[in-house]
Design goal:
There is one protein chain. This protein is α/β, with parallel strands linked by helices and 384 residues long. It has one domain: Alpha-Beta Complex (Inosine-uridine Nucleoside N-ribohydrolase, Chain A). Helix content is 36%, strand content 16%. The chain is globular, with a radius of gyration of 19 Å.
């Protein structure tokens, strides 16, 4: 009963903002409710980012987004999956160049020696010199961070969910203090994705560690049921046009934005150079001068941060009654499963709202970009 009560926090917060798109039509056809994308309980007291930074570039932008939101109180970055020490090196160099090297780093559970296209960028960084400290047992450091936080913790989980499963297994009593915001899941059919795929598709974070995904979504003791940034809306989170040019302009003067542009350029060139990288095909279709990659992970960070952002809700959440994952990483909606919230649709005008606010945050709030063509980008006096 306690799990059911905790899972109902968002259920009475029905959206008055009209949802749009294929996700909205699918939700309506299945008789499901739309809820607002902002948690009515307000902002969390602290945030932990669990990330497989170093392979896909969207983790880098999710980290940059959270660093520019002091209200989110990012207290820890934990690396997830494959070569987690190498990922810690990427995170440490990023945080140092962005002027945020006070944030501790936890090394998550290593699952293989596999690396990613951004690892070379950080190969010259000495982890021992990292000012914020590096903890080899990243899960234990998560526990320490949760216990030290005076309130609920937002766990923004944008990599395979291996560390979260370990947290649940080793320290189950802490789960009621944690809200989980994850990137993953694909339930709306018929969406044409880049490079020809059509939904539903197996999602990388869940496919990489299916038992962990099942454990995370199935846990009934979280502060609320898990909230997901799925394929249905995530594939539309791309900054381009005038907004992207605003990001590039700020990269010339702002170290925190410069590191985003530098990482993106390095990742793009290395991914294109080596056809063995999982990111090769994605990079072949991109031009860093014109637009970002798809920022899947930034949407999960957005969902966690929505109560701090103000403005109208950009996304609606759909309460799915029975979510689980197949052995191949496909999302299923048939029992046995667990209730979860999926951001399946934007509100009317919500995608433009999200991209404008995302751009605002990434450039430290020093530009307001409301028009989709970027012509509405203007400086805000007194904001640095």
């Amino acid at each position: 009963m306690r799990g059911a009560a905790r899972g109902s926090h968002l259920s009475s917060h029905l959206s008055s903002h009209r949802p749009t798109g294929m996700g909205a039509r699918w939700t309506h056809a299945h008789g499901l409710d739309h809820l607002t994308g902002a948690d009515p309980r307000g902002a969390p007291a602290c945030t932990i980012l669990d990330t497989d930074i170093g392979s896909f570039i969207d983790d880098t932008f999710a980290l940059g987004f959270l660093l520019h939101l002091p209200a989110m109180a990012l207290k820890l970055v934990v690396t997830a999956s494959h070569d987690t020490v190498g990922r810690a090196r990427v995170a440490a160099k990023h945080l140092t160049l962005a002027g945020a090297d006070h944030i501790p780093i936890g090394v998550g559970i290593q699952t293989s020696d596999e690396t990613g296209a951004l690892f070379g960028w950080a190969s010259d960084f000495d982890l021992k010199s990292y000012r914020g400290g590096v903890w080899i047992d990243g899960v234990a450091k998560m526990v320490e961070t949760i216990e030290a936080c005076e309130g609920e913790v937002a766990l923004v989980d944008i990599g395979p969910h291996t560390n979260v499963r370990a947290l649940l297994s080793r320290f189950p009593a802490l789960a009621p203090r944690v809200r989980v915001y994850a990137m993953g899941g694909s339930v709306v059919p018929g969406i044409r994705l880049p490079r020809g795929a059509e939904t539903p598709v197996p999602t990388t974070n869940e496919r990489t560690d299916v038992p962990a995904a099942r454990a995370m979504v199935g846990a009934r003791s979280w502060a609320s049921r898990t909230t997901w940034a799925p394929v249905a809306t995530g594939h539309q989170v791309v900054i381009d046009g005038g907004r992207w040019q605003t990001v590039l302009r700020h990269a010339a003067t702002d170290p925190a934005v410069k590191v985003l542009a530098e990482c993106y350029q390095y990742w793009w060139a290395e991914s294109r150079r080596n056809a063995m990288w999982i990111t090769h095909d994605e990079a072949m279709g991109l031009d860093p001068k014109l637009r970002s990659a798809i920022l899947w992970d930034a949407e999960a960070a957005w969902l966690a941060a929505a109560p701090t952002l103000g403005g109208k809700p950009a996304l609606t959440l759909t309460r799915l009654p029975s979510v689980n994952f197949t052995d191949a990483g496909y999302t299923t909606l048939t029992p046995p499963g667990a209730q979860a919230y999926f951001a399946l649709a934007f509100t009317e005008g919500g995608r433009d709202e999200l991209l404008g606010r995302l751009t605002d945050v990434l450039v430290n709030g020093s530009a307001v970009c409301r028009g989709s063509d970027g012509r509405g980008c203007e400086s805000v006096a007194g904001v640095s």
